Prior knowledge:
The complex is a heterodimer.
Chain A: H1 26-40, E1 57-62, H2 67-79, E2 83-87, H3 100-108, E3 114-119, H4 124-131, E4 137-143, H5 149-163, E5 170-174, H6 181-192, E6 197-201, E7 217-219, H7 222-226, E8 231-234, H8 250-257, H9 261-264, E9 272-274, H10 287-290, H11 297-316
Parallel strand pairs in A: 1-2, 1-3, 3-4, 5-6, 5-8, 6-7, 8-9
Helix pairs in contact in A: 1-5, 1-11, 2-11, 3-4, 5-6, 5-11
Chain B: H1 8-22, E1 27-32, H2 35-46, E2 54-56, H3 65-68, E3 87-95, H4 99-109, E4 116-124, E5 136-140, E6 148-153, E7 159-164
Parallel strand pairs in B: 1-2, 1-3, 3-4, 4-5
Antiparallel strand pairs in B: 6-7
Amino acid sequence: MLDRRNPQLNAHGELVHLLSTEGLPRAVMLHILDTAGTFLSVNDREVKKVPLLRGKSVFNLFFENSTRTRTTFEIAAKRLSADVLNLDIARSSTAKGETLLDTVANLSAMHVDMFVVRHSESGAPYLIAQHCAPHVHVVNAGDGRHAHPTQGLLDMYTIRHYKQDFGNLTVAVVGDLVHSRVARSDIHALKALGVPEVRAVGPKTLVPGDMAAMGVRVCHDMAEGIRDADVIIMLRLQNERMSGGMLPSADEFHKSYGLTPEKLALARPDAIVMHPGPINRGIEIDSAVADGRQSVILPQVTFGIAVRMAVMSIIAGNPA
Amino acid sequence: MSSLTLDAEALYIDLLAGVRSLLQPNSVLVGIWSGGAWLAERLQRDLQRPGVHGVISSTLHRDDFGSRGLAAGADATRLPFDVSGKHVVLIDDVLYTGRTVRAVINELYDFGRPASVTLAVLVDRGGRELPIQPAYSAARITLPREQRLSLARSDSGAFSFNIKGA
Lengths: 320, 166
């Protein structure tokens, strides 16, 4: 921790930056989920825009590529009436050797109100939050293997939407957990919201060693891992991040851990299947499951916009 | 009129008559969350209006968002009809600065273009900061700035007034 106090909260315990679901108070999470519910209905209006961030500038700082996340943040900010700038940082200043903090200082001089940051280095959004002007808010849109808190929160919104209550659920997080910031953000949120059984399911090489310490049941057997689950969160097999020896082959992985209709039948009949996207069809999930009755993958995307609107409007309204 | 003699149930009877006189063939009742929504719910029933009343929240259009942030609450706009072309009768418990009504009118227009918008309130406590006037108010009172007046509803549905900061 860079600060003794939770760097996401101000002295009144209000959210000023969203950096991680780790250490995020349950009440703050529930406030975000409730607010997101309000914003979901904005889609039904003739005017699909509210003026909460009118006159504010949101800079999307994506040091790592992501079309989906950047787009949903952009839509969310625009529906809140903010001015949005997308900066393709990977190809500009940084390539010329500018440091992260110099980039941020320069953009701050352009009167930014909020940074949405994605970076391949864990902790980069924390660093920016520590060094930006007091009125500037920071949202972590994914940093290294560390955290992807808006994805974690939209997953919680999705679970609550379909299951109402977190109190007696069994949630299985399946696949490549070791490279997954989504898995970490989900697990911290699930524990904080009181889900009694969280399972980490995957091969030994892809399940990090600290899972048991996080209060998670580790299952290396897929059948054991998803049996009687209420919620199955499939993770993308991050082939591009694999170094030699972690995985025999994608086919092998599919055989053992790919979600097929046969394996899904082991979960509860009303189980929902989630995936943060983009999906690798035929690797971690079969098309019959991804497009099937129990899949809520596309609703996740819709909920994601409302959750990002909630996060941005809540932090923008709280003073440092 | 002293605040101690504010009888919410008696004023409701007056409001009922006042709102009845405002109704036109194409009118809809929309209560401002939360006190106004309770009133609209009961007016809808007592006036034997078909369908369900609307509820409207000022949250997304408040002018103090920058200083107060987004409050946690269950207030959300629910308009179970198309507002376009309707004569919208807004209902609220207490009219004070007029800022909530301003925000609510903006909210209403996000859903369409009403034929007209009028306002009926239980109590007008003066102190307006915007050029907004009710078409009907059951009572007019003056209260010190620091006092907060709001409607309460008992489990049995009876109305009373809460006065805080006295």
